[in-house]
Tetraspanin (Gavia stellata), 218 residues
Amino acid sequence: LAGGIILGVALWLRHDSQTTNILYLQLGDKQAPNTFYVGIYILIAVGAVMMFVGFLGCYGAIQESQCLLGTFFTCLVILFACEVAAGIWGFVNKDQIAKDVKQFYDQAFQQALMADSETNNGKAVVKTFHETLDCCGPDNAIGAVTPLWRDDLCPKKELSDRRASLLQSSNCHKKIDELFSGKLYLIGIAAIVVAVIMIFEMILSMVLCCGIRNSSVY
């Protein structure tokens, strides 16, 4: 059940409309940074393997098989080690993920402003960011001194309702940070829940295995 829950959460995060709209974008021959999906794929793999390993442990407990319970314990140890490694990787890269996406957005934004023709897809990339995140413009000095707010780049309600405070409350850098910090927060919670469940599983499987071994003596 725990494996199924983790798998479901991971698949939901993987197919979330906001992240997929942004991370599937392509600017010329450059793909949007999708380092964020590494953590998602790890969760999917852990969830799927947990379901299989859980079935193995259940069957081993029913059959009172020390071999199956030992295999169950070994698989849990390996999964736990992988999860700790993934957690360390996520903690180290949590700020870099949003930073890479913001750099990609800035490049597209500059291309959209500099190109009057449709020779590149910078405008399309920028509009996707603006419509998906409900924001308008980057959080930098260029945005403050350049007349950037055009109907073909920003959502119309942003232009009409927030023109006076675009840089303060609705810049896309802030929205990108909020999007990925929220998603990474969910991944962190899921990882902690899985780790706690695994610890209990390892303890209980060893207690059961030892109980079966002692009972076989009599």
Observations:
- Confidence is low (pLDDT under 50) at residues 162-169.
